[in-house]
Design goal:
globular, 60% helix, mainly alpha, single chain, 6 helices, 155 residues
C-alpha cells in the first residue's frame, strides 16, 4: 500500500472542503487554502512566506507591504485553522487522513525552517500509531473507540 497521495486526490479533497458550510462564506480563507495547496503540490511549499502570501493572495503592494506591521496573514492563518478544525470535527473522511499524512511528509525535510519539521512530526506520529482510532472517530461521529467499548464509562 502506497502512502503517496496523488495530486488529483488532494484537489478532490480541497474541493470538498471548500464546498462545505464552514467555508461557504469565507472567501479569503477559501482563496488562502487553495493557494497553499497549489503551492505545495507544485513543490513550492517550502518557499511559502508571510510576505509572499500577502502579495500573491491578498494583493498587498510588493513595494510597501510589511508583514511585521500588517498581521492579516497571521490572523487569517489562525482563522483558517479554526475553519479546518470545524470541518474535520463534522465532515472529515477516512481518506483525508492519508492526505494529511502526505502533506506532513512533504513538509518534513523540505523547508529551511525547523518549525516545519516540528509541525510535521506529531501528525506523522499520531497517524502512524493511532490512525485506526482517528478512522473510528470519523466513522462514528466523533465518538471514541475507548468509550464505545462494552463496559466503558462515559467521560
Amino acid at each position: 500500500m502506497s502512502l503517496e497521495v496523488q495530486p488529483q486526490e488532494v484537489r478532490e479533497s480541497l474541493a470538498r472542503i471548500l464546498s462545505s458550510r464552514q467555508f461557504a462564506s469565507a472567501e479569503r480563507r477559501r482563496k488562502l487554502l487553495g493557494y497553499l495547496v497549489d503551492e505545495t503540490l507544485s513543490g513550492r511549499g517550502g518557499d511559502l512566506k508571510e510576505y509572499r502570501i500577502g502579495v500573491d493572495v491578498y494583493g498587498r503592494d510588493a513595494g510597501t507591504y510589511d508583514p511585521r506591521v500588517d498581521p492579516v496573514i497571521r490572523v487569517d492563518i489562525g482563522r483558517l485553522r479554526t475553519k479546518l478544525a470545524e470541518y474535520y470535527a463534522g465532515q472529515g473522511r477516512s481518506e483525508d487522513l492519508g492526505l494529511l499524512l502526505d502533506v506532513a511528509n512533504r513538509i518534513e525535510g523540505h523547508t529551511i525552517c525547523a518549525l516545519g519539521d516540528a509541525a510535521a512530526w506529531p501528525v506523522q506520529s499520531f497517524l502512524k500509531h493511532y490512525r485506526h482510532e482517528f478512522e473510528y472517530m470519523i466513522d462514528h461521529g466523533g465518538r471514541s473507540m475507548v468509550t464505545d467499548q462494552p463496559g466503558a464509562k462515559a467521560a
